[in-house]
Structure formats: structure tokens, C-alpha cells
Design goal:
The structure holds two protein chains of two kinds.
Chain A (H helix, E strand, L loop, with lengths): L6 H12 L5 H11 L3 H16 L11 H20 L18 H17 L4 H18 L6 H12 L3 E7 L6 E7 L4 E7 L8 E9 L4 E7 L7 E6 L7 E10 L10 E5 L3
Antiparallel strand pairs in A: 1-2, 2-3, 3-6, 4-5, 4-7, 7-8
Chain B lengths: L15 H20 L3 H23 L2 H18 L10 H22 L27 H12 L2 H13 L3 H8 L3 H25 L2
Classes of the chains: A alpha+beta, B mainly alpha.
Chain lengths: 269, 208
């Protein structure tokens, strides 16, 4: 933003602002002025009411009865399903000030990738031994304050005996991610890389898609400056129920069902 | 549909202000129950508002299936975010319809980003919401006043307003669409909104 907007400049654009018809630069300038101007805030409230009142001019066109009943039933089913999830969703965006994975988590992720590949050819006993070694080494070398329990949980989520690994890729191969699904604890941990910053007002949303076609939101996330993100969630799912995992671009705050472009996707092997 | 309320029915001038207040009180009570996880409140709220929400979504999107999706998304957002409702920013109905419009416009903009889908040219066919104050479709005192205000606007101001609200176009996009200078479009939007606000101000003052 170059010059701060004057009161008159701002006042003249509040109608367009209320209609969401200003440019991003104009929005930023207006937002800055609104923070310091009571009269503009009051005017904006009136303009917003006026904009919303336009909806009252739309002719009534009720949904077909059976379709409306179906939509209502889906809503109620989702509301009930949400209650059944013990820990519904937890999204983790790397704090802006660090911009990088904590060293121990990055290290754990890298090692866990190796563990995932290793898993394909080694016995469970050998893997368990490796995991024990990893945890031991991680504990020994840690100089940070992160709790041992947290590190243990993270490593278990990625390197446990029951962990299923799903690769998520895009057509152009740039954005990619690995999802570690710890089935015994219903824990999902995704490490994403090369994720572009979404447009203003947009975010990324992670979806678990079942064989029946149910699309379960596993939370929204934003990449850090380096394009990386970690998303963790807990959700119970039968071991053979997963069809696909996908990340879509959606409006900020997320949506109940995917609407945007698929950024990356992958299927369990 | 059970409990179809005044939010979506024809009404008699003079009764509307108090009915609006009563309706909002009932909606607030339902939101409060939703905050406590009461699915029955969600069902009742849906019955009260789904026709109005669907009508707006359909008017914006013109696709019944898309409009149904938006209805579901809108009520789901209300269920998930009922605690975030701020009464100082307007009635529950205003909040609900704002969510609906925002979701629908996101979908319209997503369509525009796909080359195989609609372009800005589609916006040329904006249908005016029939500014006929005597129409049976007028659904509230607010709707009647807004329609009257729209009918009194010069055509180019009304078009600018409708392209912005119902098609989600920015002022720059409206200028591009209509071939008018951006400054002219801004003037039209400003004058139209000021007129609309003044008309609604009269309505607000008339309320108890």
C-alpha cells in the first residue's frame, strides 16, 4: 500500500467495500483507515446493511421438497457424526516467526520417510528396533524444551508398526506431501512441501475420501514461507475404508464439502 | 416445509418491523441451542430459512444442484460457527444470507478461473430482481423498499449494483464488462449505494 487513504477517499468507497467490489489494494487501504475512524465504521455498518438488503429482493423459489429433506438429513447426519469424533480436527500451521519445522520434527519426518520405505521390505521386529533406536537417539540429542511425550507421539504417528503411508502428488510434480496414518491411534499426520501460497481469502483443506464417497474434512492449513506445512488430525476410519486423500483450495475457514481445485491427491497402496 | 416463517413469506406492510424483531429473537434462541450442540435447533433453523437461502443461492448460481450445495454449506457453517455470530453486526438472517452469498460468489469465481466455464460475458445477462413494488414475490417490507429504491435508480446505476451484488464483480470487472471508465463505475456504485442506504434508513427509523 502506498499512501494512506484520506477520510473522504475511504468514505467514497465504503459502498463498494460493502459489496465486496473493491480491489485487494483498495481493501487494504480501507481496512487501515477503518481502524482509526469511528464515523467510517458507522457508515460501513449502514452500507453493509444496505448491501445485504439486496438479498430481500430475490424472488422466492423453494427447493423441491424431497431434495430439501435430503439436504437437511445430510446436515443432521454430519452434525451427529461430528459429535462422535473424540478429537475432531487439529490443524497445525508452522508459526510465521519460525518459518521452519522444529529441527526434531524435521529430522523425525526425514527419518520416518526412510522408515516408511524400509517398512516395505523389513520385518516388524526389525522396524520396531529401528523405531526404538530413533526414539532413543532423538531423546539423547534433544537440547530443546519439547516434551518427550510429544516427540514420542509424533514418532509413533509416523513410524509405528501399523502406519500406512500415502503419497500425495500433483500433475506438475511440484507440490507433494506424505500422509502417515497411524491406524491404531486414528492419527493422521501430513507433511507437505512446495505448496504455493493461496490467493487472499483462500486456504487449503485436507480431505479423507472413503470408498463410499464420503468426503471428510481433516482441517485447513496454510504453508509457511518455504511452502511447507504439517497437518495433524485424529479421525477413526476402518483400515480398508480409505479411497483417497486430497488437498483442495477453498475459501478461508474451510468448507463442509470440497468445492475448489485439487492441489494434490493420493491413494493408499 | 415445517415452520416456514415470515422470513420467506408475503407480508403486510405495518406488521413487518415487529415481525422482524420477533423472528430474530426466535433465531437467536435457536443459535444459542446450536452452540450447545442441539441438532434439533439446526433442523428447526433449516426449516425456517432454507427456502430463502436456496432462493438467493439459485438466483446467484442459476444451477439447482450448485444452489443445493451452497444451502448445505451455509447451514453447516452456521452450525459450526454459531458461537461467532455477532449481534452488533446485524440480524441472524443478515448473517445467514451474507454467508450464503459469500459461498455462492466463491463458487462463481472458481467457475471463472476455469477456462472451460463461464467468462465475464455471462455477467451481461444479469436479470434484474424485477423491481415491481406490487409483485406478489415481495417478501418483506425491506424487500419492498429495496425494490422501490432499485426501480428509482437510473438504469446504469442499478446495473452496476446488480453486477456487484448478484454476480460478484469488482468495480474494475464492471468497468471492463460495460466498457465504461473505472471512475464512472465507481461513481455509479457510490450513488446507488447511498440512495439505497437512505431508503433503508427511513425503514430503520420507522421501527420501534
Amino acid at each position: 500500500m502506498s499512501q494512506p487513504w484520506t477520510h473522504d477517499q475511504t468514505m467514497s468507497e465504503l459502498g463498494a467495500y460493502a459489496l465486496d467490489a473493491v480491489s485487494p489494494d483498495e481493501r487494504a487501504a480501507i481496512d487501515a483507515h477503518l481502524k482509526t475512524c469511528d464515523s467510517c465504521r458507522a457508515e460501513l455498518k449502514a452500507m453493509s446493511d444496505a448491501a445485504t438488503a439486496l438479498a430481500s429482493t430475490v424472488p422466492l423459489h423453494p427447493m423441491e421438497k424431497d431434495r430439501s429433506v435430503a439436504v437437511k438429513q445430510r446436515l443432521l447426519d454430519r452434525a451427529r457424526a461430528e459429535k462422535r469424533v473424540v478429537t475432531p480436527i487439529q490443524s497445525v500451521t508452522i508459526p510465521a516467526r519460525t518459518r521452519r519445522l522444529p529441527w526434531w520434527l524435521a529430522a523425525a519426518a526425514s527419518v520416518a520417510f526412510a522408515v516408511a520405505a524400509y517398512k516395505a521390505i523389513q520385518t516388524g521386529r526389525e522396524r520396531d528396533a529401528l523405531r526404538t533406536e530413533l526414539v532413543t537417539e532423538s531423546i539423547r540429542s534433544s537440547a530443546l524444551k519439547d516434551s518427550l511425550a510429544e516427540r514420542e507421539r509424533t514418532l509413533l504417528a509416523m513410524a509405528g508398526a501399523d502406519v500406512k503411508v500415502v503419497e500425495l502428488v500433483a500433475n506438475n510434480r511440484r507440490p507433494n506431501a506424505r500422509m502417515f496414518w497411524a491406524q491404531s491411534t486414528n492419527t493422521w499426520t501430513m507433511f507437505a512441501h512446495n505448496i504455493p501460497v493461496p490467493p487472499q481469502g483462500r486456504t487449503y483443506q485436507l480431505w479423507l475420501i472413503t470408498r463410499e464417497g464420503t468426503r471428510i474434512s481433516a482441517g485447513t492449513f496454510m504453508p509457511d514461507q518455504s511452502g511447507s506445512a504439517v497437518v495433524s488430525a485424529q479421525y477413526p476410519l476402518a483400515s480398508d475404508a480409505l479411497q483417497m486423500i486430497a488437498v483442495t483450495e477453498e475459501p478461508a475457514g474451510g468448507v463442509p464439502q470440497p468445492t475448489g481445485e485439487v492441489l494434490i491427491a493420493g491413494q493408499p497402496r | 416445509m415445517n415452520g416456514q416463517t415470515g422470513a420467506a413469506r408475503s407480508s403486510r406492510p405495518g406488521q413487518d418491523a415487529s415481525e422482524d424483531v420477533q423472528r430474530n429473537v426466535a433465531d437467536l434462541a435457536l443459535l444459542d441451542r446450536m452452540r450447545g450442540g442441539d441438532e434439533g435447533a439446526l433442523a428447526t433453523f433449516y426449516d425456517r430459512w432454507s427456502d430463502r437461502v436456496y432462493s438467493l443461492a439459485l438466483h446467484l448460481l442459476r444451477e439447482a444442484r450448485d444452489a443445493e450445495d451452497i444451502v448445505e454449506e451455509t447451514f453447516w457453517q452456521v452450525w459450526r460457527n454459531s458461537a461467532r455470530y455477532d449481534a452488533a453486526r446485524g440480524s441472524v438472517g443478515t448473517w445467514l444470507l451474507t454467508i450464503c452469498r459469500s459461498r455462492a460468489l466463491d463458487r462463481i469465481r472458481a467457475r471463472r478461473r476455469r477456462p472451460e466455464d463461464a467468462t465475464l460475458d455471462d455477467a451481461a445477462s444479469v436479470e434484474s430482481p424485477a423491481p415491481d413494488p406490487g409483485s406478489e414475490m415481495v417478501t418483506s417490507e425491506t424487500g419492498r423498499i429495496v425494490r422501490q429504491a432499485l426501480a428509482e435508480l437510473p438504469d446504469e446505476q442499478r446495473q452496476a449494483l446488480e453486477l456487484a451484488y448478484f454476480r460478484g464483480l469488482s468495480q474494475s470487472e464492471i468497468a471492463e464488462k460495460t466498457g465504461q471508465p473505472l471512475g464512472t463505475v465507481k461513481t455509479r456504485v457510490r450513488l446507488a449505494m447511498v440512495k439505497l442506504r437512505e431508503k433503508l434508513g427511513v425503514l430503520q427509523e420507522a421501527r420501534p
